[in-house]
Structure formats: C-alpha cells, structure tokens
Amino acid sequence: MRLQKPPLRGKKTSASFSFFLRCIIFFLPLVSCSRSAGGRAVPPHTFVALGTVCSVNLYEDGTEALYRRITERLQQIEGAFSVNLPSSEISAVNRMAGIAPVPVSAEVLAVLEAALAVAEKSGGAFNPAVGPLVALWGVGTETPAVPDADAIQALLPLVDYRKIQRDGAAVFLTEAGMQLDFGGIAKGYAADEAVRVAVDAGVRRALVDLGGNIYVYGKKADGTAWRVGVKNPENAGADLALQVELASGTVVTSGRYERFFEQDGIRYHHIIDPATGYPAERGVLSATVVGQSSLLADALSTAAFVLGKEKGLALLQNEYPDMDALILTADHTAAGTPRIRQTATLLRNAYGWE
Ligand code: FAD
Ligand code: MG
C-alpha cells in the first residue's frame, strides 16, 4: 500500500483527514458484507490522493501492479486538476487569467466542457469559475473567516463561467482574478477513470471510494445488489441516514458536513452559491446523486445542493433522466426522483419520505 501525503490545506484538513478515515472504516462493512467468498489476490488498497482518503477494492482480480496503476492514475489526475499544486494545468490557466490562453490536455478540456454543460443546465448553480469565492472564504484552510460583504460583491463578476473561453486546446480566463476550481467535479472524473482502468484490465467487480465519491462496478459474486451507505448529515462521523441499492454505478453525495467552520455560532460550509457568494443555504443537508457517470453525479450533487430540493430534483428529472437524486432537508424529509424510492432505504427514524 502506498500512502502519499497530499499538500494539505491546513489544520482543518488534518481533522477532516481523520474524519474521512473514520468514515471509511464506518462505510466499508455495508459493502464488504457481500463480498465474494472466493478470496482476493491482494487486499484492498487505501491511500491519500485528491486531498482525501481513497479506497479501492478489486476483489479477486486485484494485483499489486493494477492497484499501483490506479493509484498513479489518480495522482496524475490530481497533478492536472489541483488548485493546490502550482504545477497543475488548472493553476497554469488561473495564473494567466486576463493575460493569455493556456494550452491544456485533452482530459482537462473534456472535464471543463462537461463542467460548462452542467453550469449551463443548472443556471450557474454548479460553476467551475467559483474559484475566487472558494479562496476568499478559505473553508478547509487554517484561516477560514466570514469575508466582508463588499469583498464578496467585488468578486461576483469574476465568478462567471461564460467568461471562460476555449480556443482549440487552449483555455482563457478573460478577466484578471478569475479562477477555475474543479473541487466539485474532478473527484467524480477520477472515480470514473479508476473504474475504467480496472475494467480495461479485465477486473470483474470493483469498489472505488474517493472520500465519499463511490463507484461500485460489476456483479457481486453472490449476485446480490451493492448497498452503498449515505451518511446522516447531522451525525456524519457515526451514523448512516440511508442506503442505496444498485447493480452497478456511482453514488455521490454533497453535504454541508464535509468541510465547514463556525463563527459566532453559525456554520459556514464549502459549497458556495455563486449567485450570492455565500455558502448555499436552501434547506438542504445533503444531496445524493446516483447514476453511471461519477463525473456527472459529482457536479450534479453540488448543483442540487445549491439549487435546493425543488429545483435540484427538477434539474435531474428534466435534464438527466437516466440519473436519480435524493435530497435530505433540514425539516427532516427525504425527497427524490421517482425511481429512488425503489432503491433507497431510510435507515433512521430521523428522516421520513416526503
Ligand atoms: P462537492 O460538493 O463535490 O464540491 C464542493 C467543492 O467544489 C468545494 O470545496 C469547492 O472547491 C467547489 N465548489 C464550491 N461551490 C461550488 C459551486 N457552486 N460549483 C462548483 N464547484 C463548487 N483538499 C485539500 O484539503 N487539500 C488538497 O490538496 C486537495 N487537493 C484536491 C485536488 C483535486 C484535484 C480535487 C478534486 C480535490 C482536492 N481537494 C483537496 C478536496 C477539495 O478541496 C474539496 O474539498 C473536495 O473536492 C470537495 O468535495 P465534496 O465531495 O466534499 O464536495
Ligand atoms: Mg460535487
């Protein structure tokens, strides 16, 4: 197992690192209880990448070489997309904001196009240009603080995904101070890629967990469905609110409990409403999206969180009918797209179906 420490953002991140570890230990029994009885060539691997704890289980087809290939692929994606690494492609684009276009790789361009498509369809609720606000709030850094209202207002014109230009394989942020941030989509892309590498190598079943971005692939040995737990947003370190059954696919959740700080008794979390510049507060505790593309599920769970229950579910139903969503709200109801009622089970009395 290779344990690589990422360039952590600060104290809060160390706390969330141990938090993630606890969550993984907590999460795994749900999925491991139905593992193949045939044994595995190599035990599952757990390592740090993309600023979070990643866990990959290739079951009986896992080899050291294949685990290494997947780990390296995730590190490569982090190397291209991280805003924390000055050497990344995204950092290069951000540095040249208002100055010049920057050539990027085909995969960065593809993820950007996908992000812009979700931005368009969600009316900018998901917004890959949110970087300046993410940096201003500093949630997850050592010094998060509620910014001045004026400072937030001043940044809003920069948080405009329509000002991102593409010219062939080059990306241009047309105003100085603009910044891309793929924190709400790149983990999903990475989960898709981890599964793709495994499938290309002939793996029959796999579980990929990138800090809560879950992908379960293939048929389980005993033929039963996978069951993926979703944390109780009000007690995320110790409790599941629901489980989702699926044959094969991804389950991604955005929650107000993942990264936050408190000031004057008020919680400020890391999912920003680009329309206001403040952490999104539309009564959503967590938004879960289920489907086949983890990239889309990642972006859409963030979008649904920002949009709130009605608009978030409408986005899924109207624009992404192959995917499902389940939203837990502050009034302790669970609301979802129609199919999710058949596949999701609420595990606690705390939440009731709407
Ligand atoms: P999601 O809801 O999926 O996304 C929230 C994140 O997306 C926010 O943290 C912000 O980055 C961004 N965002 C906020 N509002 C919006 C919006 N309206 N539209 C679009 N995006 C929005 N963490 C570290 O502590 N240190 C690291 O070095 C580090 N490196 C990373 C490198 C990569 C390539 C990636 C993908 C993530 C990295 N992270 C790192 C983690 C990252 O900062 C976020 O915490 C994480 O991606 C949030 O995921 P989530 O599932 O909790 O929330
Ligand atoms: Mg997301």
Short description:
The chain has 354 residues and is an alpha+beta fold. The chain is 34% helix and 23% strand. It has 10 helices and 17 strands.
Give the rounded overall mean pLDDT: 90
Task: Evaluate the radius of gyration.
Answer: 19 Å
- SSE string, helices as H and strands as E: HEEHHEHHHEEHEEEEEEEEHHEEHEE
Counting DSSP H or I runs of 4 or more residues, the number of helices is 10
Cα separation of the termini: 44 Å
* Unreliable segments of 5+ consecutive residues: 1-40
How much strand content do the residues show? 15-25%
Structure, explained:
- It is a single chain.
- This protein has ten helices and 17 strands.
- It has 354 residues and is an alpha+beta fold.
- The strands form four sheets. A nine-stranded mixed sheet has the order 1-2-6-7-10-13-14-15-17, sandwiched between helices. It has a three-stranded antiparallel sheet with strand order 3-5-4, covered by helices on one side. The protein has a three-stranded antiparallel sheet with strand order 8-9-16.
- It is globular, with a radius of gyration of 19 Å.
- Helix 7 runs antiparallel to helix 8.
- Bound molecules: flavin-adenine dinucleotide and magnesium ion (MG).
- Residues 184, 254, 298-299, 301-302 line the site of magnesium ion (MG).
- Magnesium ion binds next to helix 8.
